[in-house]
Amino acid sequence: MTTTNPRRATCAACLRAESACICRFATPLASRVELLVLQHPLEVHNAKNSARLLHLCLPSSRLLVGETFPAPELDAVLHADRRMPLLLYPQLPGEAALGLPSPPCIEPALLERPDKLRLVLLDATWRKSRKMLYVNPSLQRLPRLALQDLPPSAYRIRKAHAPDQLSSLEAAAHALIQLEHRLEHYAPLFDAFDAFVEQQSQRFRA
User: Fold this and answer.
1) What's the CA gap between 113 and 60, in Å, rounded?
2) pTM
């Protein structure tokens, strides 16, 4: 299904112009860990953004757009169905100086029950993600998941400051593999991402 405006037809699923639709790259996958994506408004129509493709690949995921979320509503989403939310975000130097509390530790027993976990992903630039963390105290109170043994990013269409700075899709995929120990199950996520990157590269070269 498409929507139209005076300038172009737009895919209602991926929110992109029909000529740049990415829906064909998505292979729907079931996940034991539930994914919640909090997307900064500036990323919604960013052609290089991978969160919408991630959302299409994981039908059970939820994607909310905003920078500051009302605390009662955010808390309800974070803790829905009595899942334990984990924030996919590194603990950065200088957080204490900003008045941010130290995040609680992850209980090891919880990591043995991926079906009881909710992975929370901030889809934003580093600068905007730090602001999202700062202005949403509910996120500050979450245990944080750090990614381990990361390969270099394949996100060649967007500038990164270090090889291990990943796209939202790559970060979520590696986190799900780390939590569920199912590498082959999530391989289609990387295939979808490679196809998306190639499509965008061709458009930028045109």
Assistant:
1) 17
2) 0.88
